[in-house]
Amino acid sequence: MAVDNDTVRRIAFLARLKVEPEKLEDTKSEFNKILEWVEELGEVNTDNVEPLVSVNNEALSLRADEVSEGHISQEILKNAPAQEFGYFVVPKVVE
Amino acid sequence: MSDLTDLTIAESLSKLKTKEISPVELTQAYIKKLDDNSKYNAYVTLNADEALKAAQESEKHYNNNTNRSLEGIPLGIKDLFCTKGIKTTACSHILDNFVPQYESTVTQKLLDCGALFLGKLNMDEFAMGGSNETSYFGPVVNPWSKNTPLVAGGSSGGSAAAVAAKMCAAATATDTGGSIREPSAFCGVTGIKPTYGRCSRYGIMAFASSLDQAGPICKDVTDCALMLNAMAGYDAKDSTSSKNEVPDFSSFIGQDVKGLKIGVPTEYRPDGLNSEVAAYWDKAAQILKDCGAEIVNISLPHTKYALPTYYVIAPAEASSNLARYDGVRYGLRVSGNGLDEQYINTRTSGFGAEVKRRILIGTYVLSAGYYDAYYLKAQKVRRLVKNDFDEAFKKCDVILTPTSPVEPFAIGDKKMLENPINMYLNDIFTVSVNLAGLPAMSLPIGLSQNGLPLGMQLIGRAFDEATIFKTAYQLERGANFVRM
Question: Is residue B78 among the annotated active site residues?
């Protein structure tokens, strides 16, 4: 399943990355090399094999739904590129 | 007296307890070694002043007999672990101004045991790489390099190099596909990736969450046990951390291996395997045989498919985990016309080439129409890889393999850089272990003809690090590897 330039552009947008036009061909060929390689998996018969999502067999723990470490909004905002009035600032998204 | 930085943790602790040396003296000796960082580029952030203050606190603990298990031991911390108030970047431009406001569970546990931190260690960007060349801060130079600068391995290249060059007593590291074991092998030091779930992942920047595990890189097997004792244990903040009891790993050091069955997998000896690597593998088996262990041939038939499986699953999880770096809440922000363009500009300039490559692959294999063909298929093959180990461990107690098919190569090696798959293939002996969630250790076995370290890997059953420690200690004694 080789990908074309349009697919590379579409995937890049889904990942919110930009592939410069002059790098598009290289990115595509590298992409296809890796895909061709992972397609070796097609040789393996996986009929009736359950996918392995996690190697952890233990049941997940439940906890009470309550605040454990609250009132730390200043710490959370400490690394913000832009903040105002205790909020993260982003470009306007609603006209 | 020889340099204090020659001592292992175990040796340092016994001298500290008898007050033959003080934590301040020990810390000062390591701080002096940090001058070598200009040669090796192992540290990306130094914390020497704070370390010295902590050493003075440790001194009080020794004086009033409240010293804890790693009191006054100077460590290096991989830059993937969040450390409160100390810049933590994952060696990525996208986080190069990030100062965590909280401490990772593993580093908190080490602090609670009295350890102190000399600084943050270099690594491949977001732990994606096998040579430490994808770091935003440049590659680590292997301390064993002769004339040409060699790679230290990756992704925990800074951790392995710093331990080898005695720039810390031991280091934390993480392993998603071999990132503790391969650099340990390349730098002639000892590192263990414990069972998935053994150490909490809380506060460790996520790469591939179903594969990531923290572990120590140390000067020897005994120190690995001391470090893992401190690092392991259930944590409510990581839902995948295990409630299994953590034994005292040190208690297995020195136990004999008589009657133990050592599995040697046929599939790990492909035609054309480096002859020196093969010879050392035989030697390691002989050492264990001489100790009374029994060597049994085993088969791991899906070995060939482990790497392609890994290179679907790991990028898929990475593409999801790295979606959080969007320039909104922390890290780099590169403005644009509107929010989407800000995301794109931030991520495009913040991530390096290998990270972007993996995000793109991951996004593709998870995208509508391709999910079943790639991601679901890989998860099924992942089960077969795990089943292979389940079968093998019916016939043996621990598995012996080389850690890497190659010795450390030159920084900027053309063959490795021209095709990313060539670099990926170096992980051929290590990735299966992550897919199956098993514990595995790498320890040095000897030097190649070029005078470069080669490593052996011991793989155990899930939650049976004990057998690895037992076996590794005997192998270490037999190999008699001379540290730098």
Answer: yes
Question: Cβ A34–B98 below 8 Å, yes or no?
Answer: no
Domain definitions of chain A by residue range: 5-43
Residue B461: predicted pLDDT: 98
- The verdict on residue B351 lying in a domain is no
Residue type, B408: P
- Residue A84, φ and ψ in degrees, nearest 5: -155, 140
Whether residue B35 is contained in a domain is answered as: yes
**Residue B356 domain flag:** no
Closest-CA residue of A relative to B375 is A51
Q: What total of structural domains would you count in chain B?
A: 1
Rounded CA-CA distance A32/A44 in Å is: 20
Strand ranges, E, within B412-478: 440-447, 453-460
Distance spanning both ends of chain B, measured CA to CA: 17
pLDDT tens digits, B335-382: 999 999 999 999 999 999 999 999 999 999 999 899 999 999 999 999
Q: How many CB atoms lie within 10 A of CB B455?
A: 30
Q: pLDDT tens-digit profile of A11-59?
A: 999 999 999 999 999 999 999 999 999 999 999 999 999 999 989 888 8
Q: Is the interface score ipTM higher than 0.85? A: yes
Give residue B245's domain range. Answer: 4-252+469-479
A28–B contact, CB cutoff 8 A? no
Is the bond into B155 cis (omega within 30 degrees of 0)?
yes
CB < 8 Å to B462, chain A: 55
- To 10 degrees, the CA torsion angle through B335, B340, B343, B345? -60
Interface of B with A in 386-405 (CB under 8 A): 386
CATH number reported for the structural domain that contains residue B188 in this entry: 3.90.1300.10
Which residues 44-83 on chain A approach chain B with CB closer than 8 angstroms? 44, 46, 49-56, 58, 60-61, 63, 72, 75-76, 78-82
Q: Which residues have a Cβ under 8 Å from the Cβ of B332 and sit 6 or more positions away?
A: A81, B93, B94, B95, B96, B97, B346, B349, B350
Answer yes or no: are the C-beta atoms of B42 and B140 closer than 8 Å: yes
Tell me the chain A residues in contact with residue B356 when contact means C-beta distances shorter than 8 Å: 17
